[in-house]
Design a protein that fits this description.
- The chain is elongated and about 55 Å long.
- Helix 1 crosses helix 4, helix 1 packs across helix 5 and helix 3 runs antiparallel to helix 4.
- The chain is mainly alpha-helical.
- It contains five helices and two strands.
């Protein structure tokens, strides 16, 4: 697979994974209020609640599973998908904690910082490719009605992320 294709897939999957991790959070923007945003200096934005991404992902997965009303035959695909979502959330939390801890030791020159961030993006792209595969496999196990619901929920997650800008 070409590097451009991998990176594009990674970015698209990134949006989905972040959406899964954040969608369970109460969205005050839907009620005319705006979230206060903070940035930790590494471009990692988070809201004032600082809710654990793993807890957010698990909360969203519970909601998603309930809404999809999965059959017993769909459980193995669901388990693989939810395991990947949880792994992705844990990875994001770990990366965020590592970056916060490494701030004092971060390279001071722009080229060194860019090289470090490029390496992190490569790791993220690989993780996102695994997430994209997991979504594709799970999606193929859904009925047409479940796919429609899953698509709507995915779009609402993307819109949620857009409101956070």
């Amino acid at each position: 697979m070409k590097l451009y294709t991998k990176l594009t897939l990674g970015i698209i999957s990134s949006v989905f994974a972040v959406g899964v991790a954040t969608a369970a959070e109460h969205d005050d923007t839907m009620h005319g209020q705006k979230h206060e945003m903070n940035c930790d200096g590494m471009g990692m934005m988070h809201d004032h609640t600082k809710m654990d991404p793993v807890a957010r992902a698990q909360k969203h997965l519970i909601e998603l599973k309930t809404k999809l009303n999965l059959t017993k035959d769909q459980e193995p695909a669901w388990q693989a998908f939810s395991d990947q979502v949880n792994a992705q959330a844990k990875n994001m939390a770990s990366m965020h904690d590592k970056m916060k801890g490494d701030m004092p030791n971060m390279p001071m020159t722009a080229p060194d910082r860019m090289a470090m961030m490029a390496g992190m993006m490569e790791d993220r792209a690989q993780n996102m490719a695994r997430m994209a595969d997991s979504v594709k496999t799970f999606y193929s196990s859904l009925t047409p009605e479940q796919k429609t619901l899953f698509d709507k929920m995915h779009m609402s997650q993307i819109k949620h992320l857009d409101h956070m800008k």
